[in-house]
Specification:
It contains three helices and five strands; from the N terminus they run βββαββαα. The protein is rod-shaped. The strands form two sheets. Strands 2-1-3 form a three-stranded antiparallel sheet. A two-stranded antiparallel sheet has the order 4-5. A hairpin with a 5-residue loop joins strand 1 and strand 2. The protein is of the alpha+beta class.
Length: about 120
């Protein structure tokens, strides 16, 4: 039986064969011969304890870092809407204030796999 060990990010860190290797490190999962070969390609990770194709899967920390970078750029580009001398009406300022708050709320989402960006006021 094949075994694959992995780190906290789900990346494979070692491969073993029961009966040949003793004291196989934890955490590990059982792999078929096909999964063993797939895991060597680096396009697979262990996600929720399962061998999974993941060429584009990022860790939650990476997703949050990218989200914050994009969000911060949008906040900076809309700072002018909240200045006292902004040419916007109070109604438009409120729309922009709500938009900016929705941007800030993105980092508190439970499901980072389907982020819906708020629409920028017109």
């Amino acid at each position: 039986m094949y075994k694959g060990t992995y780190n906290k990010d789900g990346e494979y860190t070692g491969f073993y064969v029961e009966g040949i290797h003793e004291n196989i490190p934890q955490p590990n999962i059982e792999l078929t011969a096909e999964e063993w070969q797939q895991a060597l390609s680096k396009n697979y990770k262990v996600i929720n304890g399962k061998h999974t194709y993941s060429a584009f899967v990022q860790s939650e920390d990476s997703i949050l870092e990218n989200l914050r970078t994009a969000r911060n750029a949008l906040l900076i580009s809309s700072d002018w809407t909240q200045l006292d001398d902004s040419p916007l009406s109070e109604e438009k300022k409120t729309e922009w204030r709500n938009y900016r708050q929705a941007l800030r709320d993105l980092t508190g989402l439970d499901d980072l796999t389907s982020i819906v960006w708020p629409a920028q006021p017109s």
